[in-house]
Amino acid sequence: MLLDIVVIVLRETLEASILIGVLLSIGRQEHIEIYWVFVALIVGGISAIVYALNLGVISELFDYFGQEIINALMQYLIYCVLVMIIAAQYMDAKFSNNLKGLMVVAVSLALTREGGELFVFFSGFFQSDESILSVMTGGFIGLAVGLSAGAIAYYSLAIYAGNRARTVHTVVLVFVAAGMVNQATQLLIQADWVTAGQPLWDSNRILPESSVFGQLVYAVFGYEATPSKVEFVTYICSFMLSVGVVLICRSRFDNNLSVSKS
Amino acid sequence: MRVLIKVASLLVVLGVSLCHAAPPVFALNIRDHLFYPSEITVPANLKIKLLIFNEDSTPEEFESYELNREKVILGGRKTVIFIGPLKPGVYPFFGEFNLSTAQGRIIVE
């Protein structure tokens, strides 16, 4: 039972935690003050509670597909915000105020869904006979492991400097952003707003989706062992769109790169 | 009585859906943190509509890696999930909020 709670909390915090780690590293590269994280946590926390309290209403919208539609919308929004953050790295220094706002939005959206599910889960627990101490202990352990994953993400990226750092951050975020689109598309398939068709391949033998590493790669990069054609196409398109934006921004702001980013 | 109403409504839904050649509908109940039935057999290569009733007072999250489905169902509520088209095989699912007890399989033939 304790282990169940640890696993649940860990899985819900993993994605947001790694996203925060990556964005913190970008913030450090762009010399942005760190307080944006605390704003994001507060906004995300409040948003998660509002989401959880209204989940009953949300779930019955769109013929019982409200959860899928609202969650997919949030994921697509996170994608757009992440592409803007990637682009902002290649633009003038005056964009860094916008960068703080963008990071707050991205993290708040990620926390809304995952925090909301955790809130629903815990409120269910407090109605039952389970000992509150074991619930809180399990939750704390899961959270601690999730946060360490975020810390590892941050420190793995923070070792880079200068242009190399920007390239590494761009590569990581392009994959994370495409992963968000993948998750959103899966939700629309679940709601039958998008038709799936048969999977293109099955890579479960190479990397099972249910394995620990498979779950990690799913949470961060949207890894899918049995992708359908529409998921594959939207993944590639979102990937190429992000890369396209980077190339455009790089060529437009070429003159300012070495001057303002030293 | 509640069971009777559920069976009757399921038959009505099945009847209506068959008339319109809509996806086949299967019902799943969550009771005492267990799935009833714990095994469902469905036809292959067809879109399937799963009606999930959470009879417990606490929320549950229906989840499956193999099916790529994940949805929270609040206590005392019902919801709909589409799965498939699926190739023949066994696709496990579980209740994420009660991992050790709530487990089931979709068998595709």
Q: Which secondary structure elements does this structure contain, and how are they paired or packed?
A:
The complex is a heterodimer of chains A (262) and B (109).
Chain A: H1 2-29, H2 36-53, H3 55-64, H4 66-88, H5 96-127, H6 132-158, H7 162-190, H8 212-221, H9 229-252, H10 254-260
Chain B: H1 2-19, E1 25-31, E2 34-36, E3 39-42, E4 48-54, E5 60-64, E6 69-73, E7 78-83, E8 89-95, E9 103-108
Structure notes:
The complex is a heterodimer of chains A (262) and B (109). In chain A, 79% of the residues lie in helices and 0% in strands. Chain A has 262 residues and is mainly α. Chain A is globular, with a radius of gyration of 19 Å. The mean pLDDT of chain A is 89. Chain B has 109 residues and is of the alpha+beta class. Chain A binds chain B through residues 1, 4, 7-8, 11, 55-56, 59-60, 63-65, 67-68, 117, 120-121, 123-125, 127-128, 186, 189-192, 196-199, 209-210, 224-226, and chain B through 45, 47, 57-59, 61, 65-66, 68-75, 77-82, 84-85, 87, 96-100.
Brief overview:
The complex is a heterodimer of chains A (262) and B (109). By secondary structure, chain A is mostly helical.
Strand count, sense and barrel status of the largest sheet of chain B are:
5 strands, mixed
Morphology of chain A? globular
- The percentage helix of chain A is over 70%
**Strand content bin of chain A:** under 5%
Q: How large is the radius of gyration of chain A?
A: 19 Å
Biggest sheet architecture of chain A? none
Question: Which strand order does the major sheet of chain B show?
Answer: 3-9-8-5-6
The total strand number of chain B stands at 9
* Broad structural category of chain A: mainly alpha
The poorly predicted ranges of chain B are none
Number of helices of chain A: 10
Q: Determine the number of helices of chain B (DSSP H or I, runs of at least 4 residues).
A: 1
Report the span from N to C terminus of chain A. 52 Å
Contiguous runs where pLDDT drops below 50 for at least 5 residues of chain A: none
